[in-house]
Design a protein that fits this description.
There is one protein chain. This protein is of the alpha+beta class. Helices cover 36% and strands 33% of the residues. It has one domain: Aminopeptidase.
Amino acid sequence: MRHARSSSVDDVLWLSPRLRDADQRELAAASSRPEEALSNGLHDSLICKTICNDQGEPVAMYGVAPGPEPLIGHPWLLGSDKLVDVSLTFLRESSGAVKSLHEAGPFPLLLNYAASFNKLHISWLLWCGFSLGKTIDVNGTPFTGFYRIQDV
């Protein structure tokens, strides 16, 4: 992404108190805090990028972390309400960003879960070519599985 760069600890500290309400609620349902989730994403991911607005402020972080299963990557994205500042560029360049997540491992399969109430997140995932899978219960909150198989 044009507005994306490698993430840093400063990005975690800037973005964690500014996450979208839906992202904060999703993390709380999974028993995680924003700073903890972003820090884990920074340290555990093979790719971790920060999306910035035109003022250089971090508006989202995303990445892909390996799991215990070979060839499966676990993508994630957490953002602030200011992600709308770069929404056209974000949407236009999402396809290339997702492709880079596949290539990071390489991960022919990307797989994770999103809180079912996080409609904006789920809409974006569908836009990027992910499919929806089964729904599971996480601490009383439904989470919808999503996955994407790499284009051959």
